[in-house]
Amino acid sequence: MVNYIHEAFNDILHNLEWMDEATRQRALKKSKSIYSSIAYPPELLDDSKIREYYDGLMFTQGDLLQQYRNLTKFTTHSIFKILRDKVNKRDWRIYGKVAVVNAHYNRVYNSIRFPAGILQGVFFDAERPMYQNFGGIGFIIGHEITHGFDNKGKQFDGNGDLSNWWEKETEIKFLEKARCIIEQYGNFTVPEVGLNINGKLTQGEDIADNGGVKEAYYGYKKWIKDHGEEPLLPGLSYTPSQLFWISAGNVWCGKSRPELLKKLLLIDTHSPKRFRINGPMMNSEEFSRDFNCPVGSPMNPKDKCKVW
Ligand SMILES: [Zn+2]
């Protein structure tokens, strides 16, 4: 899935009209050097590696505070131990926290990470149709890849070094497109609290959501080419493409108290869940086509924003 979605992102880069050739080649170079870690590193199953890693960690009986101090000292020491080592951006220990239900793009390592913890539930199940998986974890995979090319990721190159690889005129076009997203999301009102999103704060995540769902969509189209059309779900009259969008919508289905919503609007770089779905889908011509939304209807506004 990661390969299909990554290819879909590279296709977007190849076909972008607003990007000059020199910047495009650098963008492709960066994209192709993204390292991905899926589920868990194989070293976790190597007893000798694990024993070596935990060497020196002592637990004593019965004293919770002392256990905690031992663990903190051990962790701090393990970090200082590698301070003078040459940095290895693919070190398995960087990708070792596998039980978390989250995913990550790291700008300095230029890597994406999908720990075992997220490969379940609404996100992924090997036994179900792939349109559901592409709408679920696929949406997240595309999101993380796109982070490498959001307002912050774009400032780093394929080695993870802070360097400006953008030709001036293309950078101006990027900033205009990001401005569209900032203003669009800044005009979304969260009805429970009557407040608007801070589009400037959330732009990176919004750019990643918009690009991510599109890459997952086209990644799935590529997957079908290799594997054939899939059966529908019994009792539902939706097409596979519609089921892709519905599965993507399920990913951020949730409910929050107004107090939390208010707090998150101030500090969270992610838009509230509803807008993480409706925003990208309102901007998607593919979504409107698959659901026959007339132009000018709430989910198919005439003015759309698109970065990637
Ligand atoms: Zn993100």
TrEMBL record:
Signal sequence interval, chain numbering: none
Gene Ontology molecular function: metal ion binding; metalloendopeptidase activity
Location of the Peptidase M13 C-terminal domain: 102-307
Source organism: Meganyctiphanes norvegica (Northern krill)
Cofactor (UniProt): Zn(2+)
Superkingdom classification of source: Eukaryota
Occurrences of domain Peptidase M13 N-terminal (ranges): 1-41
Protein name per UniProt: Neprilysin
GO biological process: protein processing
Alphabetical list of InterPro entries matching this protein: MetalloPept_cat_dom_sf, Peptidase_M13, Peptidase_M13_C, Peptidase_M13_N
GO cellular component: plasma membrane
Keywords for the protein's UniProt record, in alphabetical order: Hydrolase, Metal-binding, Metalloprotease, Protease, Zinc
Family that this chain belongs to: Belongs to the peptidase M13 family.
